[in-house]
Amino acid sequence: MDMKAFFTLHRDLPREGPGTPEDVAWAAQHAGLASNARIADVGCGPGSDIAAWLAVLPQGHVTALDTTAHYIAAARAIWADDPRVTMLQADMARIHNKHDLIWSAGSAYFLGITKALKNWRKTLTSGGMVAFSEPCWLTLDPSDEARQNWQDYPAMSDAAGIATRIAAAGYEVIATRQLSDAAWEAYYTPLEARISMLRPTADAALTEVLDAAEAEIACWRSHRDEFGYLLSLARPK
């Protein structure tokens, strides 16, 4: 894939994956976080979940990090004057300081669940937890179309497989939640609008990226009962 074309499509989107503020509120509630809890939002993209975290933790602090410079720049433009937010262009494999919860919205798979949880353990406070969303099969027999859609992620499993990888990192599952259709539409609806805006002037490389994104959206709309995202809240044993 042409990465310049990829970021042309994804630049300035409100989200880089499925999610809603309700998912953040669910994680905060089930983790039993105090209103001044410290959160690390790893792989934060353009900072789409920062406002939701500050809404549920008004005295808290969010350290949001991503390796992509323009995502960090976009988030800083919004949050630079808020002392409750720290933005870092940094590798999520190397988190520093202590946090009451590490939030990973659709990004843990870049490291692998077990490796990510092991890496992050040392940065959790006593009783601290990790909440992460992960692609998940919802059926034992996905269609060929659904399998083709996820061919670049051969480690994808069902909920039991995710739990196994959590246990392999020395964590226990506290609670899980399947992301709603609204969470997917929060990502795909703005993406569709941007595809429509870019297509009339797209060159060959960008057209290829736009076609792939449209096919991904169509696959989810047709096969949403076969795959989704599972949000897991896990705690070190």
TrEMBL record:
Biological processes, Gene Ontology terms: methylation
UniProt key word Isomerase: no
Gene3D superfamilies on file: Vaccinia Virus protein VP39
Highest taxon above the source species: Bacteria
Keywords: Methyltransferase, Transferase
Domain Methyltransferase: 39-128
Gene Ontology molecular-function annotations: methyltransferase activity
Keyword Transferase attributed: yes
CDD domains: AdoMet_MTases (cd02440)
Record's protein name: Class I SAM-dependent methyltransferase
Naturally occurring in which organism (per UniProt): Sulfitobacter aestuarii
